[in-house]
Amino acid sequence: MPDQEPGAVSPNPPIVRPVQWRHEEHLWVPATERIGRFARVLLAIMAFGFLTVLGIAAWLHPYSEDGTPLSQATHTQLGMPPCNMMVMYGKPCPSCGMTTSFALLAHADVWNSLKANWVGTLLAVFWLGLIPWGLYGAVRGRLLWVRNGEMFLTFAVGVILVLMIARWVWVLVF
């Protein structure tokens, strides 16, 4: 107030309102602001990386000599060693069967993909969906259906890890 002397107390103190959550800050609301160039490049790299992994999965042969589907060890076709946990303890690791699952799904053998590692099947389908999503974000500069990319990534990785561990415990116990 311009008419007030310096140091005088205002008869009408400002009203303080509590902070309210805005609907726009929710994780799944479409983003209105554009993402930066670095994030767009990362989305393109992610999309092409997932496409490469799924392409390699299609190239692998997830079947034994007699044509029966494998349940694990398809990754050895890439020159990788057998699973250390399986070799040392005779028990599968949390990701055992994941490569086989991807390869079986790439060969349209959904049932055997689920039997090899159902979390791998879910992950491959999720990645398949992230390819166009990432390319859209890279080209348009906006995250489709996601407001906060970091929160989405944290949530997705957390869910996948929990599912992997739950499946692993199930395999070990039963």
Would you kindly provide a brief summary of this structure?
By secondary structure, the protein is mainly alpha-helical. It is 54% helix and 0% strand.
Can you characterise this structure?
The protein is mainly α. The protein has one domain. The N and C termini lie far apart (76 Å).
Which features characterize this protein?
single chain, 174 residues, mainly alpha
Topology:
Layout: H1 37-59, H2 84-89, H3 98-106, H4 110-140, H5 149-173
The stretches of 5 or more residues where confidence is low (pLDDT under 50) are none
**Pattern of helices and strands:** HHHHH
Number of helices: 5
Q: N-to-C terminal Cα separation, in Å?
A: 76 Å
What is the strand content? under 5%
Going by helix content, strand content and strand pairing, the class is: mainly alpha
Please state the CA-atom Rg, rounded to the nearest Å.
25 Å
Strand tally is 0
Mean pLDDT level? 88
Shape: elongated
Helix % is 40-55%
Number of domains: 1
